[in-house]
Amino acid sequence: MSHRTSTSRDHPGSVLERDTGRPVAAPSGGNIDGDVTTTLITDLPYGPRAAAVARDAVAVALHGTEPYLLDNARLIGSELATNAFASGSPPLVMCVDRRFSPTGGLEVEITITDGGCSRSAPASPPAPQEEAESGRGLVIVEALADAWSLTTGAHGTRAWCRLAHSALHSAAEPD
User: Fold this and answer.
1) 82-101 pLDDT, tens per residue?
2) What residues form DSSP beta bridges with 6?
3) Closest Cα partner for 160 from 149, 147, 146, 144?
4) Closest CA to 96 of 45, 140, 54, 65
5) What pLDDT, on the 0 to 100 scale, is given for residue 34?
6) Tens digit of each residue's pLDDT (9 = 90 or more) over 49-74
7) Which residue of 84, 85, 100, 120 could cross-link 114, Cys pair, CB 3.0 to 4.6 Å?
8) At 155, which CATH number?
9) Domain count, the chain
10) Domain range enclosing 148
C-alpha cells in the first residue's frame, strides 16, 4: 500500500506530493510575522502499522529537534494513530506542523483525522484498569502535550495536540 504525503510551507504553490510510502518534509521557508512553519501531511495505513508509520512521519517532520521533544512527539503520534485505527474508520491522515518563532521557540502540532466512529469523545481520558494492556493513549497525550483535543463524530474524528518548546527550555532539558 502506498501512502500519499504532502508537505508545504506557508505560501501557496509549495506543495510536494510523493507516492513512495515514506513521508518527506520540505525545507522551511514560509514567513508570516517572523514565524517559519513546515507542514507534513501523510496518509496512514488503516491497520496495525499506523503507529509505526506515524512515528516515522513525526521523525521526518521534526528532524534536528531536541531529542526529548522528538521522543515525546513520536510517542504522541503513535498513540493518536493507534486510537484512530482502533476506534475510527478509514481514511487515517496525519498532519505535523513545525513552527519556529522569531524568539527561537518551537511549536509542534500533531493532528490525526479518521473517517469517524459511533462513540462520543470522553470529557477527560478514562483511567485504565491497572492490569489492562491498552487504554492509556489519551492519558499519555494529556501528560505530554501542552494542549490537546479530541472531537468525534460519525463522519470524522479529529485528535489534535500541541507541544511548545522555548529557546530557554533547551538548556534546562535532559538529553
Assistant:
1) 999 998 999 999 999 999 88
2) 17, 41
3) 149
4) 54
5) 59
6) 999 999 999 999 999 999 999 999 99
7) 84
8) 3.30.565.10
9) 1
10) 5-127+135-172
Strands (E), 31-105: 36-44, 92-100
87 Cβ neighbours under 8 A, 6+ residues apart: 117, 119, 157
Q: What is the pTM of this model?
A: 0.72
Q: Which amino acid is at 81?
A: A
Nearest to 88 by CA among 118, 122, 48: 118
- The closest of 69, 84, 81, 93 to 144, measured between CA atoms, is 69
For residue 47, what is the DSSP state?
A: S
Query: Which residue matches cell numbers 495536540?
Result: 161
Which amino acid belongs to residue 104?
Answer: G
List Cα–Cα distances, 91 to 42, 60, 64, in angstroms.
11, 21, 29
